[in-house]
Amino acid sequence: MQAKHKLEVQRRERTGSRYARRARAAGRLPCVIYGHGQEPLHVETDHKQAIRYFESGERLFDLALQGESKAETVLLKDLQFDYLGNNVVHCDLVRVDLDEVVEANVHLHFVGEAKGLKHAGAILTHSITELHVECKVRHLPEEIRVDISGLDTGHPLLARDIPLPDGLELKAEGDVVVAQVTVTKAADETAEGATTEGEGSEPEVITAKKEEEGEKKD
Q1: Which pTM does this prediction carry?
Q2: Does 136 reside within a domain?
Q3: Burial of 136 (C-beta count, 10 Å sphere; 0-12/13-18/19+)
């Protein structure tokens, strides 16, 4: 995987929570770049553009540091969110080489319609949306496509069941449930009630009732 996008950053002359808040208020995203034995570099970048890249699954970038011509490749390592967990307030980037082995979270793209959804009251749930893997940087994919068309109730999809592209090694726990089809409790109770009613209830004998009424009239 080659970097598709250039991330333009500029140095932050002052660090600390107060100056980070000022940067965010100005539409900037504070970042720290580290790795390759160099001192951590405190920078900032355009918040909207960076978030657009991150949300589309981009993890690898060509770094363009303002005032310097040296080319570097960086990998998105971590995102920090606000206390509500809604907005990205900081990111960590690490310097990498294309042949360097790294661990990263790769977005899962689910395709197909699970056959288990044909059951009444069935719902599909995704326990995780990223998979932790290890590979060379050049082999790092933007996403991993997961075919869930064969997924049925009672047979959850585990992390170890996902076919990985060449060069990738699973680092997440193999028994982690990735996706599953379940039937809601309300649907089960409705189906059980319908069965019980059909099997246990006795039909009303209309003729006998009419004869009894007729006898009372006489």
Answers
A1: 0.69
A2: yes
A3: middle
